[in-house]
Amino acid sequence: MKINNETKIGILAVVGIVALIFGFNFLKGKSIFKKEKYVYAVFEDIQGLGNSNPVVINGLQIGHIANLDGGKMLKRIVVTVELTKDILIPNNSLAVINPSLLGSVSLEIKLGNSATYLKSGDTLLTTLSGGAFDEALKMINPVLYEVRNAVKSLDSVLHIVTGVFDPTTKNNIRGIIENLNKVTGSFTLSAASLQTLLNVQSGALAKSLENVNAFTNNLNGNNGKLNNILSNAEKASTSIANINLQKTLNTLDSAANQLKAGIAKINSNSGSIGLLLNDTKLYDNLAATSNKINILLDDIRVHPKRYLTISVFSKKDKGEYITAPLIDDTLKLPPKIK
Q1: Is the whole-model pTM more than 0.85?
Q2: Burial classification of residue 39, based on how many CB atoms lie within 10 Å of its CB (0-12 exposed, 13-18 middle, 19 or more buried)
Q3: Are residues 24 and 38 located together in one domain of the fold?
Q4: What is the pLDDT of residues 198-231, one digit of tens each?
Q5: Residue 125 and residue 42: Cα distance in Å, rounded?
Q6: Which has the least CB within 10 A, 12, 53, 199, 317?
């Protein structure tokens, strides 16, 4: 197949355009065949940082600045960093701009110690840099460098003092001093109370010690009596311990059994006491006998001559015999005297 000159010129033009694109991207540090990874950093002052400036970690370039965008206000400038190497950056790493007096400005990433790493689209933490400028200033004018450090330290101290002595802190300090005054007043009262307590003449502690001393002296004076009491208590406990408790309990148990057997015999009709208590015939006989004795006594009282002859000439009482007890008039109460 024969290719005409126009086709050859078109193919050559396309190859040239593609080579130009590859070369331009290569010079800019971009990779055509690799997936691009971007992270961002935000600064108030980029100190001359520009597009394509290197991004380094520990002196090794790992990317470049892809874009700078400060909007219309330019108060916050967003720096887009394109990473050309596949590295792990902890999410607490710091982005620092390092200005240079002899070369281009670079962006340095100081690695953190976090176990979580940045992903594409995340934002780096930023901090102000003094790096190369401070080193150059130290070499050119050491005195000015020391004055600058002193001014920074003084500014930090002033910030701290201002923070400490703000209105809220002043009120807190005033409250602390008032509380200290109250505490010292309480300590003064406590010291006075303690002094009163420890007073040798009228203190409560001295009186308590006197009472304790009198009590101990009393115990010492009655030591013989206490010994006798303890000795008697020991003898009593020894006597109680020597008692044959089991034998006593057995005796009581035997007596209880005998009493139980006696009560059982009394309740039964087998013994004399049982018959006396439980036989109704004996009760009836005793009642009849008592009735007859009453009749006899009444008859003797009414007809004494029938049973006793006092005189030779007296006649025998031949009246009728009493067959029923008479009413006992002796139980009647005498009439009341008006």
Answers
A1: no
A2: buried
A3: no
A4: 665 566 667 777 788 888 888 777 877 888 888 8
A5: 8
A6: 12
